[in-house]
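Sample 3 of the quickstart, ligand zinc ion:
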Amino acid sequence: MAPSPCSLCHTARALVKRPKTGQQVCKSCFYSVFETEVHNTITEGQGIFHRGEKVAIGASGGKDSTVLAHVLTLLNQRYDYGLDLYLLSIDEGITGYRDDSLETVKQNQVEYGLPLKILSYNELYGWTMDRIVEQVGRKNNCTFCGVFRRQALDRGAAQLGIDHIVTGHNADDMAETVLMNIMRGDIARLGRSMALTTQSEDTIKRSKPFKYAYEKEIVMYAYFKKLTYFSTECIYAPDAYRGHARVFLKDLEAIRPSAIIDIIHSGETFVLEQSVQKGLKEMQTCLRCGYISSNDLCKACALLEGLEAGLDRSALKQGQSTLSVVPEGHRIIPRFERPVPIAVEGIERAVQSLAL
Amino acid sequence: MSCGNPEGAVEGEEKEEVLMPTSRPVRRVDKAICNRCKKAKTSFIFRQGAYCSPCYEISLRSRFIRQLHPPLRPGAVKSTLTLYRPVVQSGQALIAVSGGAGSVAMLDMLMSRGYISRSDGAATNRTKGQKEAVWDKATVVYVEFASVTGRDERTEDIRKLSEDRGLGFIGLKVEDVYDAGLVSWLGGSERNADTSGVKVNFQQPNLPVSQEPTTSNTTPVERLQSLLASLPPASRPSLLSHILDHLLTLAALTLPNVSQLLLGETATRLAQRVISGTALGRGWTLPLELSNSFTLPDSQIVRMKPMKEISVKEAALWCRIHGLETVNYRGWDDVGPKGKEGRAKGGAASLEALTEQFIAGLSTTHPSTVSTINRTGDKLVFPGDTSGPICPLCEMPTEPDAMRWKARTALTSLTDPHSSLGSPTIAGIHTGDSTHDNFAPTLCYACLTTLSGGATDRTTGDGMVNLPPWVGQRVSTSQRMVAREQMREEIADFLLATEEE
Ligand code: SF4
Ligand SMILES: [Zn+2]
Ligand SMILES: [Zn+2]
Ligand SMILES: [Zn+2]
Ligand SMILES: [Zn+2]
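Result:
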């Protein structure tokens, strides 16, 4: 086949077929559109960042966060966002999985000159995932892991005085989430899950700058830029329903590459009945650890109490123990202290809302 | 995320189950005895329970009535909505019958419960509790797709099905969209200029259109086939579905005194529509498509989907019990010549077919799949304005700003959307530019995708393909609307206040 010219610059030789648009483009145009799309995502409307903001990149050593660290560092310089970037990693304590991938993160730290903080489940909760799986088995391990990771990221950020975490969720993740939420009737989440930035009343801001970036293109970008990342699946990864949705999504993409972005577009235009939107619970703080929670005890404290009590499955049922009194001999999570800047911002916002 | 659990990993907040809720354990009940009457022997076992034959029919019928009655009694108090039979409607019912289980079962339920008086004068069987008819007259409309699917014609079967029940019958063919005489054949008068010669050029991304005298040497079938052939296989089912919608709507608007258009879309089909509509980028208008009481544009006619709580399996069982023959396979996924485009592993060529397979597969392990999906669909509301610009192809409202969104999230040119002052390009389409001859800027988000990749290598000769006349007509209408916006733009600096319109 004769080499065709790049359909963007019309001069260089096309090297790849872009997974997202099907256009044949050269390497440098590919970088350019990929990066510009991320920049567009970041700057849409008011933009997700403000000058001087401290931003933590949730870094797992996988492809998404590795490429995100690279691209954010680059865009921060190119467009002079004025961001103070950090790498924040969570060590779940999974032998043979996380200890390897953390090496990648440490490498990124050196490469981009970004400060790195690693926070482990062990130091925070007194439990590693290895031990949790030993106790609860392979069925609900991801529930523990998800709750613990979310809170660990917030705590890590708070310790660094950071009020904004960016994660490597990509377009495939977003589209899959839309499909999952439809299929399991999770209507309240359907509305919220599409937001570029989420911030419930009191927690740290979270953004997804890669929400429109195709997984295939992230891999392509890493490949051409020779970025190294760690790609082994977690040894405790489940393979149930989510797998179905992922396979379905890949099939949709095979038939029509724009399907991923089209699903996200649909997801963003969905408007739900009023009653659904209001259905969310009022937030308070955990009586035991001070973390944001919809109950007296936050999820992490409730799960931890179950683990400590040696319960396995019943540890999942929240609301059993709502006492702020810790049973004797149990470990607890240190108190959650929020960074100062957010408090100031919060006051400003309160004043602004009064002024209106 | 590399851990394979992105959502649970980061958004785990408040989530009980990271994975899909599994199939509920089947209730431990005696499956030998009907769960409803607790007397008769069970004939059928479903997710909801085990039924004897009469109880099964009651269950189906009550779900049917629950959807049928409310749109016929607008303004009635909620609790009494389904209880009483609605009053006699002012117009006739137009019943769309495809020959599939959903529409055949719907027709049978309507007739067997005396919802429609038989126009052939045959005495209705007024046995115990037989109620007043709701429609004095009804017509069945059937659209034949045999010319594009290559399947057996069923027009005569459906005619017989209808006429045996004393109903009027209209048999249309899918290629009738290209028939200039269709409206007058249906009994209406042609009001618009002849647009049967409007052609589109698929070789250019902005899809320029031009008016050419109709070349009489091509038949409607040939024109439709060449339109289908010039689209990627993945887009053909969407096109057929828009043609079907258009023909049914046209029949409803043209036949005398139609007050309701009844579609036999089952819960299964609706669930497929929710998922495939999402994947096609039709999320914005999805609530209108799903609605059980959608008022057709510029009319008082209400389009209803009374089968929306009944699955295709249940409808098929109804038909089997009553000895009614059905054909449930549409065959839209393999019309036209094969393309070199990607297919899913199972062989599906379109998002619609893939979704159908996916939901069917999932339903075997998760029997509540269809109802859960529909529960989500029911909660969606249409946020837009139905009186705004209309997409010429799907005839649904076009979503404002969608093209700008796409231009920013999937760049197809290197011009900076910021510098070009709100006139971003998408696949070379200048959305803010003069659009007088271009089809692309008038299309909705999803239809533009459907018609894009209408490919260079597929079309022969000059690449010009005949558009169905209705589309041509709509294009010229929407171009007038765009032109008005441009006028306003030109004088924007001189307008002191936005006028009230
Ligand atoms: S897959 Fe592994 S890392 Fe991911 S949530 Fe589950 S246990 Fe944690
Ligand atoms: Zn190039
Ligand atoms: Zn707590
Ligand atoms: Zn019974
Ligand atoms: Zn459309």
